Batch of 2 targets.
Target 1
Amino acid sequence: MKCLIIAAGKGNRLSRTGIPKPLLPLPGLRLIERTILTAKQAGVEEFYIVTGYRAQQVEDFITQLALRRKLKVHFVSNDEWEHKENGVSILKAKNYIKEDFILLMSDHIFEESTLKDLIRGSRDKGRVVLAADFKIEENTLIDLNDVTKVQVNDGTIQNIGKTLKVYNAFDTGMFYCTPEIFTAIEESAQNGDTSLSGGIRVMASRDKAGVYDIGKRIWMDIDTPLDWKKARRLLYNNLIKPEDGWISRKINRKISTRIFTPLLLALFKRITPNIVSLISAVAGILGGIGFILHLPVIGAIIAQIASILDGSDGEIARLKKVQTSFGKFFDALLDRYTDSFVFFGMFLYVISSAEITTLLGKMAVPLIYWIFGLALVGNLMVSYTSAKSCLLYTS
Amino acid sequence: MKCLIIAAGKGNRLSRTGIPKPLLPLPGLRLIERTILTAKQAGVEEFYIVTGYRAQQVEDFITQLALRRKLKVHFVSNDEWEHKENGVSILKAKNYIKEDFILLMSDHIFEESTLKDLIRGSRDKGRVVLAADFKIEENTLIDLNDVTKVQVNDGTIQNIGKTLKVYNAFDTGMFYCTPEIFTAIEESAQNGDTSLSGGIRVMASRDKAGVYDIGKRIWMDIDTPLDWKKARRLLYNNLIKPEDGWISRKINRKISTRIFTPLLLALFKRITPNIVSLISAVAGILGGIGFILHLPVIGAIIAQIASILDGSDGEIARLKKVQTSFGKFFDALLDRYTDSFVFFGMFLYVISSAEITTLLGKMAVPLIYWIFGLALVGNLMVSYTSAKSCLLYTS
């Protein structure tokens, strides 16, 4: 599947940052980097990227990215970006794309599954399909003055535009396009409207514009510094996993997504998840040593820090979209060994602490043996049971 | 896929056992039970079973089996079994099977994968395909005087029969048949030959008989008491897994496949693998208690017995063809807990044994802590690593 991404505009409201909008940094990835890598995960194989404002800088960045992540990328130049609307950017690709394709905006963030479903969905031949958001009441991430509104009736677009008064959905900026879109935009342009919405209106008038309902999924258009802030928060909040336990949700994940991970990404731009796994393991070992050295409070604090850091490796992997099986395996192994070592350190501390053994009385020693034996085995068995059952019951 | 199984003959050379040949007991399953369940695993959905000698007894048994294992079974009666050859048994099913089907002999044992590949293999329309064994030199499981020989040229059967002088393969008794086989046998019968081989020769004369090379896979035709003995040994030997470790291959598996599993199957006909898992776990716990009670030799012997028994549950599951995900999970969990308990029992014994601690000198106690900590964690980590890596790398 080919994908056309519009990255030609200046993004006036964000231009004071001095960075072309597609290169705006978000946690782990630049804005367009996230768009491209998410699209790749969703099944896109080849990219056509329309550049305009600061084209060279944007293209240099993407060329580097393409080399690093083995992407097939072509650039399409739009020298009219300053004076015409976004439909013109699409027209520039007319000679390169002769089949159905995906159209994305470089300044939108979206979920991989939304695009995956848009690509896989069934559709009538020759029909453009817009991924539409029908959560017009609940969606607080959009700017009502700026969002493109859509009036949909029975799965078909009736009207589309920013100034629509009657509408029931938002345009998420994700389209499944057929080559007919080019002639539709040309027709609209002849009537003075060079916008993509103009082209979609032409398609709609031919009953060739449908929608795909994105359901509960979220997306964002990043136009203002406030949007940018919201997007950062959104991306970090999305790192919380549904399977996270109580401690993780209430404490660890909050600290890792708000402090540790942002800090690591800010301090070490090129940090990899496996390095973070290793740092977390070293911290865990230090925590265990703390206990062995009869410094239980320091040991406990370091072990807790290790436990929080242990969330950051996966968070960085997901933010940077560099999840690998090896990374998951490496992390899981280090975690088990580190946890066990911390337990063992605690055991050595407790068994050699005169205070505690006196407190526990005559049966202190066997009691401590049993408690730590059960803790050590029980802790490993949680992970083992989970892995084994997934293995046996999902294949 | 439908499957026709011939189970009409008397099996003279085995008849002194007093049991109709299809009901001959093999480890875990009767002869025809194994044929049926293996075929089901390979993808057969519906069975047509031709009965003759002691038909009622055979049918009663299979009806019970069908209820227990949810099989779709039809019986086809052959009252001419005593005086005519096996082609007649096939002809009796002519009115019931109108499409391609699998033809099997009730007295052959074979590997599931052989039949699976025979079913899935590509073939020319209207062609009968025989699963042929080209290992005519290496195969020591067959009786050269009795086996049906095949002369194959360029994947096509040239000739087939027991008395063939020139041949390059054996007939394994497994066929992918088209309904044309019925008219071919009829034609052969008109010329006085009521055998299946006669029918195949007719098909071959029309260039409609091909072969599928079973490669290194093994199979057996069970005709004599010696065959029966060989088959028992073969089935037990097949329980040795390629991933079994050294201790398992050299000691545990030998004892479990030669003594424990045969004994359990002989003593408790209805024993289930999960019960054996439980018995093995109880034995392991007793072994651990032996150590705790300062009876290390008895503890070690019981723990070793538990370890051998731990092979029997899977062996019985495979022999009876009742492997389940739950069974594997249950066994794996019990094993980990049992192993850990044995280690813990050893630890309690060693740490409280004045002899050993004196022997180890001043550092005895921390040394023992570290050794058992490493052993406990290391042992669990072997299983965890294996499960986790399978999970991450096979999906």
Target 2
Amino acid sequence: MTKPLAPNATIGILGGGQLGRMLSVAASRLGYKTCIFEPGGDCPASHVANYHFQKSYDDADALREFAKSVDVITYEFENIPTSALDILEEHCRIHPNRDALRVSQDRLTEKTFLRDLGLMTAPFATVDDANSMAAAIAEVGAPSILKTRRFGYDGKGQARLKSSEDADTALADMAGAPALLEGFVNFSHEVSVIAARSIDGQVSCFDPGENVHKDGILSTTTVPARLTGSQRMDAVLLAGKILNALNYVGVMGVELFVTPQGLIVNEIAPRVHNSGHWTQNGCTIDQFEQHIRAVVGLPLGDGQRMNDVVMENLIGDDMDRLPDLLAEPTSAVHLYGKADTKPGRKMGHVNRVSPKSS
Amino acid sequence: MTKPLAPNATIGILGGGQLGRMLSVAASRLGYKTCIFEPGGDCPASHVANYHFQKSYDDADALREFAKSVDVITYEFENIPTSALDILEEHCRIHPNRDALRVSQDRLTEKTFLRDLGLMTAPFATVDDANSMAAAIAEVGAPSILKTRRFGYDGKGQARLKSSEDADTALADMAGAPALLEGFVNFSHEVSVIAARSIDGQVSCFDPGENVHKDGILSTTTVPARLTGSQRMDAVLLAGKILNALNYVGVMGVELFVTPQGLIVNEIAPRVHNSGHWTQNGCTIDQFEQHIRAVVGLPLGDGQRMNDVVMENLIGDDMDRLPDLLAEPTSAVHLYGKADTKPGRKMGHVNRVSPKSS
């Protein structure tokens, strides 16, 4: 058994958004202090953290000072500059590890890793220019989606091809960035597994949730998801396989397409995940606490679902509905403390809870 | 309808202990900022609050500055100096109100208030000196308990009388403080109702919990409590009566003795209550969020219990059992971030959750 960090130890969190905020709260529940590294001021996580390093990821001295002041480092987003990780890692452990970041920062590496594990992915081919684009369409076909290999999130950096005629426009959208053409998958619905792995290799998964997106952004997650018993088992097993292969420590979000041929892995995120927010009101130990438990070396909770939950994201103008949402007597509203509402901006979410149906 | 405080408003909290800490977390969930007023440094609530006024309750300037910097004031303990309240109230609303504090700060006022409401209390008589002590014993009898009228908590400021022979020792224990002799109540068990009332007068109660004390300190709270349907109804109705009589806004803890003759009110606490900690893992909206909702003018949650829970306080050396507690896969451990463990000190609690039985 690894010796866990003692209560009162400090957890460093890279990123000060809503995920960092909810990680901070979970850490406080277990008696830990948190220190946020985030260039932006008045960020959501800073409101509930002990310390806030408001510094740039280019500031080597600040990174060093941050790493020396904390007992373990984790993060709320995967696009952390490699140069920053190099400095941090000299002074402090980082969970999840570099392998997890390397795999998830690049769609090509990610897809190749998953395929090599024996898991199904959408067909894919790399695209760097008009020539490779033509070859990719020949291989993958259309309809398909062209995506930048790096730094995409919430549908950003993506262009749809209805047919090969859209190739030039889609390629122009990438603005010269290395890209991946992904073939169309004929899926009935998307589910995700929020999986956790402890330092000692214990794996625990939450019940898969069923996701609905709007405009490329997650809109709702519903538990229980529409899955057969064997699909549910498959989902959990393949998530475990991914975590074990990476010697992963922490929580990971694994997005899956449900098809008649089986489950196809869409993408993985090496962090707590929006589609796991339902666990806050559906489980005794939620994804945020599960992640904290993993990175400090504590045993994991069992992930058992106690209630049915529908999680709805509150995006931009959805905040206008806040008075109605707050008046729903069995719904838990979670707000992120962001000062300004903007279109497409995640402002909060609501978990609608009902007694467990199955 | 009262207009609620907008998200991003700031809630001032008097007191920086574990209750303030958990109130801060609940406030953050609803998008509010918090500002703690607490003379002690590195206090539990400051770890998860936006601001910490580390100032004395004698510091009129600090109190004024604090009151001006927040949008509403609430508190985690009832023994706030009247002089401080006078200053604060000039600049900012305080919920729950002065009446609630006046009643609960003095056991005589409290018992008289409850009796005047038509509720049952233990027999009581005031004790200031040897003469009134003799009269009180003649009226109330022995066994009985002598309690200071003010500033008692967790069994402090109490002396038991097995018979009238213990009168002198008990009186000496009060060190000249005004006291109350309370007659012995032959009760089978103690329950408490965590009740909430909104600014608009909406009342919502959580399911009563059954309390077990050790050495005068709460040890466990279990839901569901052993109560008949009509006792449960009585408990909730009398709590509502108390809140309405005080035009109360916020959460109150109402401790009740269960006797064959009915429910006897032991004491009330005008704040979130240790015996309501189970709601964190038993309800969609817990007592801390319910209190925040009330004081900012939001509608209340319905208090519906989703699970069975046994809450156990972790006091002093109980922290030695932490590794075992953290390894229980369906138990939620809540720690308060206190640096030093001391005998009798509340360090955290654990909520053991199981599916709802009734």
